[in-house]
From TrEMBL:
This is Flagellar motor switch protein FliM. It is a peripheral membrane protein. Its main location: other. Gene3D superfamilies: CheC-like (3.40.1550.10), SpoA-like (2.30.330.10). Residues 11-38 form a coiled coil. Residues 256-323 form the Flagellar motor switch protein FliN-like C-terminal domain. The keyword Endoplasmic reticulum does not apply. Belongs to the FliM family. It is found in: Bacterial flagellum basal body; Cell membrane. GO terms for cellular component: bacterial-type flagellum basal body; plasma membrane.
Length: 333
């Protein structure tokens, strides 16, 4: 255990207090002999480091952005989804924290073991369903009376959203999420033992005027095989540049070469007022700013790139490139 190092000022203050009687040396000895105890709850074991929690937060921030885009397109209304918190706690505590009747989507994530739970607050779920059915997105909580049609609509809506979850995890592991169960009562659901540590990602969700939480419960058994990847060291390795496949480089180069450009030979330009323009008539002459003894300029996508001279090629107007234009990047003349 590392010992606390006192500064010179602190040492002087301590000696002064002992000499004046403000502190008792015997009491200090007694305090040193007393054992310092820190409370530890074995029912709430912390099995993920702060570094790993930060990685999970980063993954689900990406998922929330993808989910916002997905639901905005599906529901055609204002949607905003953000990560509110990422915590680790016993499974039993999570089950007690959610409503007694709610929307529960249980899906597997092969090749990883175990299952993940996505719980959506009824306010949010009913607003989604109302929009899918052509409504304004109003929310009515009647989970215990879900019809077969309502159950099918909700389960399909969340099942299609799992593609975004697969994409969010793509930088860590290639998973294939598959919806297995759809429940409304958490008391009938037993994914893991009550004391099993789970990571709970809470997403603050707004659908039109309705708002609520979407909670993602990930048991430790699911993340255990990939825990070493949830570290800064792994992320740094993933961000290292990789050597591209020569065939891939050739394919990209070929595609770029096939792209079309707007190329124009500029004979000259002139500035005039609207009054002068409206007063133009037959046989009027517009004086350009291009000297006749200087080469013309060629523009590629509105940027001057070459000096050219006009001429003919096979009885057609043409220009000959003289040299590359040496002006500033992006300069238009």
């Amino acid at each position: 255990m590392a010992e606390e190092v006192l500064s010179q000022n602190e040492i002087d203050s301590l000696l002064s207090a002992l000499s004046t009687g403000e502190m008792n040396a015997e009491e200090l000895k007694k305090e040193k002999k007393e054992k310092k105890v820190r409370v530890y709850d074995f029912k709430r074991a912390l099995r993920f480091s702060k570094d790993q929690i930060r990685s999970l937060t980063r993954i689900h921030e990406n998922f929330s952005r993808l989910l916002t885009t997905y639901f905005s397109a599906q529901l055609r209304t204002y949607v905003n989804i953000e990560v509110a918190s990422v915590d680790q706690l016993p499974y039993e505590e999570f089950i007690r924290s959610i409503p007694t009747m709610t929307i529960l989507n249980i899906f597997s994530v092969p090749p990883l073991e175990g299952r993940i739970l996505l719980e959506a607050n009824p306010n949010v779920s009913y607003a989604m369903m109302d929009r899918v059915l052509g409504g304004k997105g109003s929310s009515v909580n009647k989970v215990e009376n879900l019809t077969e049609i309502e159950t099918t609509i909700m389960s399909h809506l969340f099942e299609r959203s799992l593609e975004n979850y697969q994409e969010a995890w793509g930088s860590i592991v290639d998973i294939d999420p598959l919806l297995e169960e759809f429940e409304v009562n958490p008391q009938f659901l037993q994914m893991v033992s009550p004391n099993e540590t789970v990571v709970v990602v809470s997403l603050n969700t707004t659908i039109g005027e309705a708002s609520g939480m979407i909670n993602i419960c990930i048991p430790h058994v699911v993340l255990e095989p990939i825990i070493p990847r949830l570290s800064v060291h792994y992320w740094m390795q993933k961000e290292k540049p990789k050597n591209r496949d020569p065939e891939e480089v050739q394919a990209i180069s070929h595609t770029i070469k096939e792209a079309e450009l707007d190329v124009r030979a500029v004979l000259g330009e002139a500035d005039m007022s609207i009054e002068q323009f409206l007063g133009l008539g037959k046989e009027d002459v517009i004086r350009l700013d291009q000297p006749i003894d200087q080469p013309l300029k060629m523009k590629v996508d509105d940027e001057v790139k070459f000096y050219i001279q006009p001429g003919k090629s096979k009885n057609k107007l043409a220009v000959q490139v003289l040299e590359e234009y040496q002006g500033g990047a992006g300069e238009n003349e």
